[in-house]
Structure formats: structure tokens, C-alpha cells
Amino acid sequence: MGLLSSSVSISRYRVEGDIEEPVLETVRNGLIRNVISHIEDEYAEMSVGWTPMESAFDPDFEKFTFSFGTYFVFSLRIDKKSVPSKIIKKYVSLEIIKKLKETHRDFLSKNEKKDIKDMVTEKLMRQMPSTPNMYDVMWDYENASVLFFSTQKSANEELETLFKKSFQLTLIRLFPFTMIEGSSFLKSEEKDLAANLASTKLLR
Amino acid sequence: MLDIAVSYNKYKFLGDEFLTWVWYLVENNINIKTMVDMECNKISLELGNSIVLENSLGDESSEKISIKGDDAGLEEGTTALRKGAVVTDINLILIVDESEWRFSIKGESMNITSLKTPATGNIESQDDIEGAVLEKIELYAIPFKIIDSLFDNFIKKRVSDQWKDVEIPAMRQWIAL
Predict the structure, then answer these.
(1) What is the ipTM of this complex?
(2) pLDDT tens digits, residue range B114-145?
(3) Is residue A23 less than 8 Å (CB to CB) from chain B?
(4) Taking a C-beta distance cutoff of 8 angstroms, is the pair A27, A167 a contact?
(5) Chain A residues close to B115, C-beta within 8 Å
(6) Which residue on chain A is closest to B118 by alpha carbon?
(7) What global pTM score does this model have?
(8) How many other CB atoms are there within 10 angstroms of residue B32's CB atom?
(9) Is A71 in the B-facing interface, judged by CB distances under 8 Å?
């Protein structure tokens, strides 16, 4: 889901830590070092990396910008391969029939069946194209905040991990507790009181 | 410092209570502009087309009430509040001067979904992209600023005597109507 879409879902983060100067170069290097890699001919089930917002399939941060005014905007791309279990089952069955015919036997051992399944799965995984998903990231560096254009748990977890790996900065997800903790409006005694609150019952 | 997962679960009730309070503000036409530091003439919130309430029944089970539709009656919602439910998800229409945002907000995560900003200019060439991105970022900032201000105000009241002396009686009066 993209920043420029007509309808978006957003989760918010606070960025903790100091980034190395010069900031623009550090961010550029972090993005380049962790661009999405190509997994089409490989066994890998998943590939996660950055790509420019304007160019999902040409992840070239020298050609496409990630700096918009005082913000950094780029995308997290998650490519996933999966082979439906029914397809694996079909090809495993065909391979078993073939092997039984070739060896003139009535049955295969458990280990032989497992080897066939592993071989079939690996072959199908290599043939299967990956499904790409893109999620935009808007990093307001001056205010140490990030908007992530997805509320999917798995995508959020991938973002948190890759952001840390790329920039050595921690993303703190904003939800009631962390919003109170990071509020500049609330006094520290109010934050302490909030930490000890119990739920209110509206019914008498 | 609390573990993130523990603090998420421990304090999600505050997000749900916040949304319940926001619904009370909306239904009672309470002026929210005084709670938000923003240069504009008018800020208002209206209920959008859905609201979800949840009533914890103990022993880890709960009753969920979803009300959807543009002209849906909200009596079931206030009845659920009377039985002890809280709002867990609410669709809101935010109006700032002449501009309108629509979104849903979830209490436990404060995630925003289905956010629609006021209309922006069309992108006709590559040169328009930077302007469009910056315009969208400015538009996204406004509902977050208002939500954060309301949340801060809610917590300030929630930890003070004002909560039990003023807010709770007023909310009870509203749901009793």
C-alpha cells in the first residue's frame, strides 16, 4: 500500500538512537546495502529489502531519489515464494509412481518418500516466481518518527528488523503505552500515574 | 522498562477507553478545538460508518458488537456501553475548516486504517511526484496531530480527579439517555 494511494493504512513509530553524520549519506548507504535481492532462480522462500518508492523493480538508489524535502521516503519490498501444498502433493505422487515403475517395486520406504518430497519441493520452489509486496516508509528524520504504510504484523516485524540492520536505529511502535511514554505534553508524574491505571467501568 | 509485548497487552484498555471517550465527545458535540494546538477556524469529529464495541465477559471470553452502515442506529452501541462494553474500533470523519479526512482507528494498537485525505492534485509527470509526496505527508500529519492531542488530553484527565468527578458522571448520563 502506497503513500500516494487514495486510501491507506498506517502504523507509526518513534525512532530511537543517533544516526551517523552526514545523515543523507548514511541513509543512502543503509538503503543501498540492503536493497531487495533477486530470488527468482533460487530456493529462498523470502527476500526482504529496500527499493525506491518510485521504482519497485529497479532498486537503484543512485537513479531514484529517497529524499523529499526534509523527509526520507522509500519502500520495503517483501518477495515471497510459496508452492500450494496440493501441487507439491500431486508432483510427489507422480514421482512415487514413476520410481515404483522404474524399480518394479510395490512400495517405497519412508525415507525414500521424504527424499522425493524434498526434491520435488526444491524443484518447484526454484520454478515458482515470487510474489512481491511493497509498503512505503516515510521517515521524518527531524522529528524522529516513521509512518509505515501497512498494519500487517508480519510486514511491521520485517520493517523493524531491516531498519535496525540498515541504520542501527531502533523503531518503537506507537500504541497507548509508548504514546504516553513519548508524550512531551504529559508531565513525568502523570506518566507514572498512567502506568498504574486500572480500567474504568462505565456501568455503575 | 516493560517489555513491548507486555506493555501492549497491559495498556490496550487505555486505547479502548480513549475511543469510548472520543465517541462521547462526538455524540455530545463537545468542542475539541480547545484541546488541539492548531491554527484553524474549526475542528470537528463525526462518527463515520462503523463502530465496534467489546464487552469482556471474564474467563477470557468476550462479546463483540459491530455496527456498520451510513445510517445505522447506535442504540445497540449505547446499550452495550451500559453493559460494560468499550469501543475497540471506530470510523471517524475529521473536519478541519473545509477539509475532510475519513479513517478508522483501533484502540489497542492506535493503527489507522482506510485513511482518506482531502483530494490532492493529479500527478501528470515525473516532476509532480515530489510535490504530491510532500502534500500527502502534510495531509497525513493533521489527523495524527489531532489524535495525539486528544489522547494527551484524555490521559491528563484520566490520571486526575476530573476523570471520576466530571468525565465519568457525564459519560454515564449520556449512556443512560
Answers:
(1) 0.91
(2) 999 999 888 878 788 889 999 999 999 999 99
(3) no
(4) yes
(5) 7-10
(6) A6
(7) 0.90
(8) 18
(9) yes
